[in-house]
Amino acid sequence: MTNSTITVDVVFNLFSFIIETISFFVCLILLSAIIYRIIEIKYKHGQLRIDIPLILTINIICSILIKSTLQIIHITIPTLIKDYQIMTYFQETSFSRFRAYILWSVVGVLYWSYTLLAFFRFTRVIYSTKRWLHRSSLYVYVLIPCQYIFVFISLLPSLVIFNNIDLIPNEAYCTIVFSQFYFALYESSITFSIPFSIVGIFYTFIVRKMRETSAIRQGQELDRRDYIVIRRMGLNMMLLSMMALPFMIIYIKDIIQNHYESILYRVQWLSSSVGSGLFSITLPFITTRLRDILKPNGIAPINNQHMT
After folding, report:
1. Where do the domains of the chain lie?
2. 152 sits in which H/E element
3. How confident is the model at residue 86 (pLDDT cuts 50, 70, 90)?
4. Interatomic CA distance for residues 259 and 244, integer angstroms
5. Which of 151, 116, 108, 150 has its CA nearest to residue 136?
6. Are 31 and 63 in contact (CB under 8 A)?
7. pTM of the predicted model over 0.90
8. C-alpha span between 121 and 163 (Å, rounded)
9. Most-buried pick from 14, 17, 146, 184 (CB within 10 A)?
């Protein structure tokens, strides 16, 4: 690699570290605010029921916290150590491969957590009469655990069957090797493409539902709010797709040349960090209840609020 390429690689990793750190602390602040408000409401009012959007928001926040921690530990810090030549030799181990599998699984969980929030908005607009779809127990005990189980099981073949999690040449960590195209396509579909497509489908159905409504009635205000929220979520996903374009361009070039450079993986993890930052910063804009919690006087009992 030339000196300019090495410099670009270092800059990408530093930016990734900065964005991931900001995402971590933003989510830590959000989670702390939620816990504080819950304790305060519980103390003042005695009874408390946490609504579904807040549950799903906490799920997203926890996913970002875990993902940011793992990426900093597994990707960023070893890369910084290598870039600044503190340590130049890294060995592939079973533990490092397993750590890469966990990181990729958590990345997938993050996108599926976002999709789960979109699913709630979708069911509330399209299947508003199906009350069982709007029960918090369905999400807490079924959908959220199933989301983790699905992603971890779906990506397990990468570790034990495809065997395409390896130490990257000229890098300090193990990750999914993109030289095996079909396996990489499968893993990318599980972690990003399928969740992104589902959010798009939900958005399309909600748009059709809203267009079928000719008059604005009071009972439709909740539907319109859900429409606005899922539109913002769709915009976030579109921005993430645009952020993935540089990676795709480099990947196509590397496929043609049959040579995969370090910058491909640097851009990939930088895009991943931007995704974490985007999710964490926009959460208050897609969950009204979270935005209310962040207000100085936003401590009304949750069970007296609409689920927003």
Report:
1. 3-304
2. helix 144-160
3. confident
4. 20
5. 116
6. no
7. no
8. 38
9. 17
